[in-house]
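Researcher: Let's do a round of design. I'm pasting the structure tokens now; please hold your answer until I've finished.
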């Protein structure tokens, strides 16, 4: 059996550690359907605390660690769930003492896997320096800024760097469970667990969930005016040089001020705004995709499909089929 230590981090949602332990155990037991009497568990799971004190989660649930870190023999796999994302830096500081344990167990040969913003704790311990990693897409820029040595891939759902594995949002621990079952128990075992637990194993990207949020609290009135013009003229051709002339500045000045205010080029902003509008129209209307293509300023259907797939990871039709209103089953 593989010894697995799940960290009881303070301040997080109970679904992180408790959900992971429950689903991992159920995925393990699902193998009994195929193995019968020859079944042996793949994982030996322990909930570990910094000490033996009960750990209070932000939803009011209290977790009782099975043992404190000091009493645990070095595990083979360490799982770092998400902590409090509403107060990320404060929560990271309150869990700081875990960093030394992560370094020790990793040095002893443990593989370390994180879910969502658990990647910040791995980065704090130095385990992600020079490595590719992912986290929830909303916090990818913060991870990249705070730990510049980490090669952040915000579009990836799971990044396996060998002895360190990172995963996207908090509830993607379901995908992480299936990945770990396959990594340590093989494809057949993982496929059966996926079927028994009804876990979709096809997602490999966070791109469909990424939401473009324009930066507007920057105080540059010129850039705000340009943003407003872009947002209200997405169906029309938009060129940086013509925008500069329209607002009475040189193209170089517009490019410099726009990037300083939004951390984006004008061209990139226009494309992201167009894709955001396309997503909203696909989700909320039944307008033909060709109509949506024209409404978002794309003249070439192939260029629209290519740009949409690059931004969302799936085609416009697939996006509508998945996220449009009325896609939930009704009784």
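Researcher: That's everything. Go ahead.
Model: Designed sequence:
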């Amino acid at each position: 059996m593989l010894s697995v230590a799940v960290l009881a981090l303070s301040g997080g949602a109970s679904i992180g550690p408790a959900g992971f332990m429950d689903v991992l155990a159920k995925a393990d037991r699902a193998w009994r359907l195929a193995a019968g009497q020859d079944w042996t568990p793949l994982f030996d799971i322990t909930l570990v605390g910094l000490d033996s004190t009960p750990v209070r989660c932000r939803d009011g649930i209290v977790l009782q660690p099975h043992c404190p870190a000091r009493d645990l023999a070095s595990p083979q796999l360490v799982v770092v769930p998400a902590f409090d994302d509403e107060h990320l830096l404060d929560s990271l500081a309150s869990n700081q003492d875990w960093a030394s344990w992560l370094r020790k167990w990793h040095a002893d040969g443990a593989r370390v896997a994180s879910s969502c913003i658990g990647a910040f704790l791995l980065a704090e311990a130095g385990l992600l320096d020079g490595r590719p990693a992912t986290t929830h897409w909303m916090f990818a820029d913060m991870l990249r800024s705070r730990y510049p040595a980490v090669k952040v891939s915000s579009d990836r759902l799971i990044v396996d760097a060998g002895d360190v594995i990172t995963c996207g949002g908090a509830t993607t621990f379901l995908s992480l469970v299936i990945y770990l079952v396959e990594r340590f128990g093989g494809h057949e075992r993982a496929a059966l667990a996926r079927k028994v637990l009804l876990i979709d194993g096809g997602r490999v990207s966070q791109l469909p969930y990424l939401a473009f949020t324009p930066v507007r609290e920057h105080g540059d009135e010129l850039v705000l005016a340009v943003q407003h013009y872009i947002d209200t003229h997405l169906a029309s051709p938009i060129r940086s040089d013509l925008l500069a002339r329209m607002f009475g500045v040189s193209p170089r000045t517009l490019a410099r001020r726009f990037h300083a205010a939004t951390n984006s080029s004008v061209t990139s902003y226009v494309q992201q705004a167009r894709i955001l509008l396309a997503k909203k129209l696909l989700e909320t209307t039944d307008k033909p995709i060709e109509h949506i293509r024209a409404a978002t300023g794309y003249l070439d259907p192939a260029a629209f499909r290519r740009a949409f797939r690059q931004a969302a990871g799936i085609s416009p039709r697939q996006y509508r089929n998945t996220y449009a209103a009325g896609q939930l089953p009704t009784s």
